[in-house]
Automatic annotation (TrEMBL):
This is Lineage-specific thermal regulator protein. Residues 18-91 form the Transcription regulator PadR N-terminal domain. It holds the Pfam family PadR. InterPro entries: Metal_resp_DNA-bind_regulator, Tscrpt_reg_PadR_acidobac-type, Tscrpt_reg_PadR_N, WH-like_DNA-bd_sf, WH_DNA-bd_sf. SUPFAM superfamilies: Winged helix' DNA-binding domain (SSF46785). It comes from Gimesia algae. Transmembrane segments: none annotated.
Amino acid sequence: MAKKQKADLLQGTLDMLILKSLLAQSRHGYGVAKWIQVTTKGALEIEEGSLYPALHRMQKRGWIQSKWGLSESNRRAKYYQLTAVGRAQLKTEVQSWSHLVDAIGLVLKSNLAEG
């Protein structure tokens, strides 16, 4: 998949991907990006210029909270975790995404000619 296509795909789904990455455990920013990359087998790579503004926006909305801790390499890092509001938002976004995927599937399976 070309980089432009990756960016277009992520524009509407980045929040959901970040929330999902924090569902099981708290992670620092690099850990969030790495989880998404590994989970998608390298198909999606989140750039810092997209990730950190999204994390800050989500924190302002109350979906995640953060605290300072030590990373695996013993460096100071900000760890993010889901809030109850964030869990509810993830559920809403997953439902919306699933509905969209189903609708697109119907279009792709359609054998109707135009007009």
